[in-house]
Amino acid sequence: MTSRRLGALRMFLTASLIVLVATSVEAATSWTDWTSASNGSSGSAAGTLGGVGVSYSGEVLGSVINGFSSIWAPNSSFIGGTVTTSPSIVGDDIRLQGIPGTNTITFTSPVENPVFAIWSLGSPGAAASFTFNATPTLQAGGPNSSFGGSSITVSGDVVSGREGNGVVQFSGTFTSISWTDTPEFFYAFTVGLNGPLSPVPEPAVLTLLGAGFAGLVWTLRKRR
Predict the structure, then answer these.
(1) Do 215 and 142 belong together in one domain?
(2) Can you give the residue range of the structural domain that contains 9?
(3) Going edge to edge, which strands form the sheet with 33-38?
(4) How far apart are CA 110 and CA 105, in angstroms?
(5) Running along the chain, 224 residues long, what does each successive block of 10 average in pLDDT?
(6) Contact call for residues 96 and 103 (beta carbons, < 8 A)
């Protein structure tokens, strides 16, 4: 094999490797780093998620924004389906008790297929629920380390639980997610994304792959 052909083949293989690495990185789940919160029936919170700004308006009973939240345990109850990491990797949460009103998360730029983690929804003797403005699908669920319980359940746009825990996903592109919830003291949530913290620019990767393939074809034709 000539050195020119080897060089073209090497370029093609390098581009293919970049595509494979980019695909694997995009499978990771990242969670919101909440950096501020204001308690109250008309509370608010703000944070960042993979380079996207996240703001929340609605009820805030309390929050953990310093990375010391221990509620997202065991990790196995919050990992499954498309979700590859637990919210415990960030260790933040926003807490609610179901005061009437609409709660809304807003993203500074559109996000694809966001995921939503819920902890301790309802009590063993009384169910509680979130009614969303979009239809979620269940990805993971199970007991929590503090109170036990079981997985949350999904029916249409409603997520319910009797001491329920888990993660749902919304399919599509979103700039905001809204919901109402029913009273119970207390439960918590956070929001995440299945994607890289620093997205790989897909057009550049495809251009590099195309260049490697074109170089390989040109070399083979030249050789013939």
Answers:
(1) no
(2) 3-22+201-223
(3) 33-38, 40-49, 52-60, 103-112, 173-181, 128-132, 158-161, 153-155
(4) 12
(5) 52 46 60 97 96 97 96 98 97 96 97 98 96 98 97 98 98 97 96 66 48 48 51
(6) yes
